[in-house]
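ok so for the tutorial part 2 we go from a plain amino acid sequence to predicted structure tokens. step 1 is just haveing the sequence, like this:
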Amino acid sequence: MKLVNKLLKGDMVIWIIFMFLCVISLVEVFSATSTLAYKQASPWIPIRRHALILACGACLIVFLHHVPYKKIAGFLVLLFPVSIVLLVLTPILGEEINGAGRWLWGIQPSELAKLSSIGYMAYWLSKKGTIPSDKIFWWILGGVGLACLFIFPENFSTAAMLFGFCYLMMFIGQIALKKLLLLAGIVVLFAGTILAVLFITPDDVLHKYLDRGLTWKNRIVEHLHGEDKIDPDTYVINDKNYQVSHAKIAIARGGVFGNMPGHGQQRDFLPQAYSDFIYAIIIEEMGYAGGIFVLMLYIMLLVRVGIIARKCDKIYAKYLVIGCGLLMGIQALANMAVAVNLIPVTGQPLPLVSRGGTSTMISCIYFGIILSVSRFGAHMGDEEEDGLEEEDMDTSELSQTEIIAGESSVEAVQENVELITETKE
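step 2 — the prediction. this is what the tokens look like for a chain of 425 residues:
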């Protein structure tokens, strides 16, 4: 236990949330990767890779939460321009997977952009009071807007989420409300123009010049007007919105307590059941109780991040920890909303739970930063050690007092013996 206390510092509630999410991830990814397992020489290969990534992520968290957040902050600020360069290179040198060119040299630069933008925004928001608010607004909007511009063509959902996160951070940072309202109006006008162009342009033109635009259009149409079309003889879904249809079946089969892990059926039909639609598999196998429990873990994470931010003595630490928690919370809610058909399919993974490489490691870095801020910014998690040091100090002082008192007593006894001897003589 002493070894654990020395190794794991910071807010223990964050550690508990992280451990619960890891356990759920291992169980559900192992169950949901059945479609991958039968293609491999061993059924353990898919989960072995995921477990290895989680183990590396846990080691990264242990390392990061021992590093003062100020050093991490400097790295994030330097990483932001690097991520912009990588986003520029992605369409040129990147690899296309699942119809989208989001990968460069085995990583997703958009994930690095999300991570570094947290440090970038926290830096500028912490300068409020020393730098005019107008300059802070334009620096944040220019930097993050540039990142969103390069992400947008291949990953609309990530660009929209990053921009929405940036907007919330500026609202929390108390940027002038007039500017935020004006920005919101411009964004709505821009989004309306994009939608109008998508729906006016013929499908064959979109397919030729903007294939991702056709994908966005189809997802919106199927979300608004799509209906489940199930063959009454074979019970096979034959509509274009089969992803959401199978997710609905998974949720309906779950009931209150689910069918237990490993007994889900829709994992064999849902594409990306171990990633984009893993929340539907969680509900099918763990029931509504399991789904609510996972939702509450992310809500508890947001609440705990707020508590840590209130205890921070530095403005930069407040914005840094809020940014990490808020971004994970937004992404988690987006993934869950897709699974229950509240919003169109976005392709956003469930943080730390979905099977992934770059996204899982970046989520672990978020946790590492939160724990570092909780320890070095909010001074949480080291109280017990400080108490032990004080107790040791008191014990040491007491021991010295006793030694001094003992020496005095010995001297007094010797004096009395000498006095009695002289009297007898």
